[in-house]
Amino acid sequence: MRITLLIISLLIIITSFNNFAEQTTSTFWKNATVYFMLTDRFNNGDPMNDHSYKRTEKSALLRGFAGGDIKGITEKIKQGYFTQLGVDVIWMTPLIEQVHGYDNSSGLTYAYHGYWPKDWTAIDANYGSEADLQQMIATAHKHNIKVLLDVIINHTGPVTKSDWAWPSSWVRTRPLCNWTSYQQNIQCALATSLTDIKTEIETDVELPPQLLSKWKREGRLTQELDELNAFFERTGYPKAPKYYIIKWLTDWVKEYGVDGFRVDTAKHVEAEVWRELKTESNFAFNIWKNNHPELIQDDLPFYMVGEVFNWGLSGFKNTVINSRAYDYGDKQVDFFDYGFDALINMSFVAHAAQSAEQIFSKYSQILNSGEMKGKGILSYIGSHDDQDSYDRKREHIFDAAFKLMLAPGGVQIYYGDELARPMYVKGSYGDVSMRTFMNWQDLQKKETQEILAHWRKLGKFRHAHDAVGSGEHQQLHKSPYIFKRVLGTKDRVLVAKDLPKGDKTIAVYSLFKEGDVVFDYYSNQQVVVKNGQITINSAFSYLLIGKAE
Q: Tens digits of per-residue pLDDT, 185-206?
């Protein structure tokens, strides 16, 4: 990676980090709408890189590269696709260089998904280049969109005919995890095809000779080694696998101003590792800010959200009821104490079958009081590896969108939720059905346009009003369903559902004053409060009301 060694004031960085460390998750992140996509399955901006590294063997169904890349994401940012959805943040599957060959343990499978690392210091050519990444991040920032990189420390990719094996000083292949204890989640291999990084090691190990040879062929061996020596001299860390990887991951922050990390397989690594990653990420983020003052948009600190599989609100699976902690059986770990600002809420797919009021009132209470107050979550209805994703048959897409996009806390749109992208494919197996290529062609259909319009209205409303995700919820009327969200004195909104089409009049419940001009984000019209009420004529059964800007 082309990182220039920078000399800056360490005192300034430490002071900035300490200030950030005292903050709870900001209102921005607690209310964020995050758009998550498989890089390879979203949009093909450069067909010339579709078969990099001679990846030409015919794969099993949906298990090969399909052409999506970084340029394709940039193209959609420029077109305003994310802005029209009210998206605050984009998160894409890992961009680092993947194993070049294929694995045959589940049918011929390439690393299209991004979770089989080969070299943490390079961008996979199927996705593009460092220049493409730099342009994508800069373009996102110009559109007021932040960028999360998906990062991995737990494992490497499988050994293939085209790829070398990491040495035993770095990885283990046995035992396989059996999930019965803390150690049987941490010091074990997730699958026979994945080699587990020995993240417990605190002693020096040598770099793999094949990696050194690769860097030499690419003309960057001296630079990489010089940077590593400077890193270990500054930090005092031993040259252990986890610290090499932390250095490599935070380089992307230092060089390009990445806003945060989504951490993969967080529960399968010692929690202390994530604290070190967060410390170094903050350090790197402040280096980038000090070197690019003209590009700084706000004072938000570096953000980190974790995937702790089976963690979720309200005692979901391995979550300790009424606690933030994850229960390994013989040990409980509160990941919020180890650098995480938020965790992915895997409960929502189960809760989504409940009524909107059950979800909203429960989530508001949990997030505004007790141990979760000030902490963040990221809820979703669909994901790349959760086969229990809600409404995979797309039978309740309007209601699912309403529940997700108006849920308290942060939310994640999984690419294609807004277009009812198919999540079942005949003849496929495993989780690949949930990873089909984005169904852009369906935008020619009237029903798809209507679904997208619904998501856009909800998204723009959420984006415009922090009270949606961060405010306190209160039901005002059961049928038609009416509720309010209030964020202190900063923001307040009124939402109504199941109203008659045409003329509709509802009380504003003292949320707005007489004569206030308010805006309905669903019908895109302003209205004045009269006699404590508003009257709107629209062809819709929803009202999304906030103060007109």
A: 999 999 988 999 999 999 999 9
